[in-house]
Amino acid sequence: MNAYDVAVIGGGPGGYVAAIRAAKLGLSVVLIEGSELGGTCLNRGCIPTKTLLNAAGMVETVRKAVEWGIGSDSITLEWSQMVAKQEKVVATLRGGIAGLLKANKVSHIRGWAKVVSAGVIEVSGTMGAETKVTSSKIILANGSKPFVPPIEGLEDVTYHTSDTIFDLDRIPNSLTIIGGGVIGVEFAAMFSALGTKVTVIEAAGRIVPMEDEAASRELAKALKKRNVTLLTGAKVTAAQPEAERAAVKVEQAGGTSVIASDILLVAVGRQPNLSGLDALPLAMDGRFVQVNEHLETSIPNIYAVGDLIGGWQLAHVASAEGLVAAANASGRQEKIDYKVVPRCIYTHPEIASVGLTEAEARDRGLQVKVEIYSLQGNGKALSMDETGGFVKLVADEKYGEIIGVTMVGPHVTEMITTASAFIHLEGTVHEWANLIHPHPTVSESLNEAANGWLGLSVNH
Ligand code: NAI
């Protein structure tokens, strides 16, 4: 029997980060992962998509280059090579995690964990061997899997989720995506740039409905320019095979239509992975494992983090929770400040936001004043020919405290941390307006927005 201070279940961005932090805090730690290290983010999510979105971005740049006097007679697209490149990136990062675990003396068991009772875990190894592990504390970081809605006939159709879409052997001619959330739009951006005819079917009135309305409008405009069909307020009521293709029946206010395409991708959200936890009488919060503010579940000494507990299903949130759970497993009493969670969508243009959107602030009854600065006046964006975007600043009307920022445009996912810092430090528009920003950069638009908010803008 192997006895540890902490057992972490799951090697994704919640779990491996928790394991290393717990080890750094002086605890003996075992990390149990049945599959590859890195979880969804590294193996089937953030990193593979960003690598292929980079390839898609290159194609767009080459296509546009001709307008700049740069000849590009023909572009060849080798999907297998793109996927191979992506796999190399993933393998490098996976190796990095294995190295970090080793360097921090975290034991790594490759197998599927079943928590038998608080402190006792049975692991079925991938080679069939069983191991028993005991630990004073357990951190559950089991993650999530794609949610597949009950659509009539869907089981008879070959469909993909974000788990399997990279197994495609070629770039499809046509792709229908059910769900216009983050996964839906990122794949729409990627495949439309690679020449696929993409249709997105979104139940809400607009794509990325959780983001600021103007941001979703700007992205919709950009996707339509790339020939993406966006059906909003649309519900898929049935699916059926049609020759080698997949057909879906779509109901909208205007009537019913049938859309057939080579590939169907279902991207309507994710659900927690609860396998291995059924013997535990965990209190649940809807579909998710309930935790208190210290990330402890209803069972003492068992903590849970990441997609298992719902909230923001983002890798960086899982990691932040992993750090807090590790600290608390070592006897501290830490909490997370969810007020400052940056959200990034890696489409073209990118969307990045932090804090409250204007609608959320008004719904909460906050007295806010809003300033929008369009990238059409930004020299760097103009020089890049990427002016489809803006900065939207939401600040408290009386004191100017920054409450939320939404940005759309090039590099905004890299810039949003400045906004996070202001919100974290309770900074004001006055302070932001006085901060010298480098010229020419897209980041100047943040400073322009702050000055605009004060009625003192020079450049707009
Ligand atoms: P999501 O919750 O972002 O979007 C799902 C969308 O599907 C929603 O807009 C919803 O209105 C729509 N929908 C639901 N049922 C539908 C139906 N039957 N027909 C048509 N539309 C329907 O979920 P998604 O895109 O699957 O992503 C899962 C999670 O992964 C999210 O929490 C997301 O934050 C995370 N993620 C984050 C990324 C990032 O940070 N860049 C990238 C990809 C995923």
TrEMBL record:
Membrane-traversing stretches: none
GO cellular component: cytoplasm
Cofactor binding note from Swiss-Prot or TrEMBL: Binds 1 FAD per subunit.
Keyword Metal-binding on entry: no
Keywords of this entry: Cytoplasm, Disulfide bond, FAD, Flavoprotein, NAD, Nucleotide-binding, Oxidoreductase, Redox-active center
Binding residues annotated for NAD(+), in chain numbering: 179-186, 202, 269
Alphabetized InterPro entries for the sequence: Class-I_Pyr_Nuc-Dis_Oxidored (IPR050151), FAD/NAD-bd_sf (IPR036188), FAD/NAD-binding_dom (IPR023753), FAD/NAD-linked_Rdtase_dimer_sf (IPR016156), Lipoamide_DH (IPR006258), Pyr_nuc-diS_OxRdtase (IPR001100), Pyr_nucl-diS_OxRdtase_dimer (IPR004099), Pyr_OxRdtase_I_AS (IPR012999)
Protein's cellular compartments: Cytoplasm
Primary localization class, coarse: cytoplasm
Catalytic residue positions: 439
Residues given in the record as FAD binding sites: 50, 307
Keyword Flavoprotein attributed: yes
A biological-process GO annotation: 2-oxoglutarate metabolic process
Disulfide pairings: 41-46
Assigned EC number: 1.8.1.4
Catalytic activity: N(6)-[(R)-dihydrolipoyl]-L-lysyl-[protein] + NAD(+) = N(6)-[(R)-lipoyl]-L-lysyl-[protein] + NADH + H(+)
Domain (FAD/NAD(P)-binding) ranges: 4-322
Cofactor(s) essential for the protein: FAD
Pfam families: Pyr_redox_2, Pyr_redox_dim
Protein family according to the UniProt entry: Belongs to the class-I pyridine nucleotide-disulfide oxidoreductase family.
Protein name per UniProt: Dihydrolipoyl dehydrogenase
Organism: Paenibacillus darwinianus
Lineage of producing organism: Bacteria, Bacillati, Bacillota, Bacilli, Bacillales
